[in-house]
Amino acid sequence: MAPQYISVALRRQIREDAKARCGYCHTPEAFIGMPLEIDHLFPEALGGATVRENLWLACTRCNDFKGDRIKAVDPQADDEVPFFNPCTQRWQAHFRWSLDGSSIIGLTAIGRATVQALRLNNDFILVARNFRRTVGCWRPLEDHSQDSEAEYNRSASSACRPRRSSVDRGG
Ligand SMILES: [Zn+2]
Q: How does pLDDT run across 9-30, given as a tens digit for each residue?
């Protein structure tokens, strides 16, 4: 079956809802330098519809690692669970950043399974995150909502003040 056409208006809506960043690794489009892909949350190959509720943004790596799967193994329980759904679930409920801002930590079975299956802390992205940190582009402030104030202050060095990038505004 040929991929369904996604209208310009629908693409724009998805991009706005996703705040122009990957729904899984939260990498902003501005850091990738090319358009993020439209991810069918329930894969098109398995009959997933091309409708707003089934679409989100993903980077090429996350989208490729996800492929046509709907489940992954939670490494802690060795049990299959559904992937994180960026359209219906809160990122902060399933993931948090490590204190140095380099790694994504899974907090739940869904979070752990997604981190492992989509390799959210792969070697390439670790280099990019560390570079962003070095030049002062901290992770989005909203991802911090679960950190305590003290933890936040400890993790943000003076040379690396958190600030919102343009793609994170307006949400
Ligand atoms: Zn990603």
A: 999 999 999 999 999 999 999 8
| 58 Cα: distance to centroid of ligand 1 (angstroms) | 5
pTM summary value: 0.81
Residue 3: CB atoms within 10 A of its CB come to 10
Predicted confidence (pLDDT) per residue in 70-106, tens digit:
999 999 999 999 999 999 999 999 999 998 888 999 9
Residue 85 CA to ligand 1 centre (angstroms): 13
Ligand 1 centroid to Cα of residue 64, in Å, is 9
Which residue has 């990038």 as its token pair?
A: 165
Count CB atoms within 10 A of the CB of residue 80: 13
Provide, for the chain, the percentages of residues in helix, strand and coil under a 3-state DSSP scheme, each rounded to the nearest 5: 40, 15, 45
Domain ranges of the chain: 8-136
CA of 39 to the centre of ligand 1 (A): 10
How far, in Å, from the CA of 103 to the mean position of ligand 1? 13
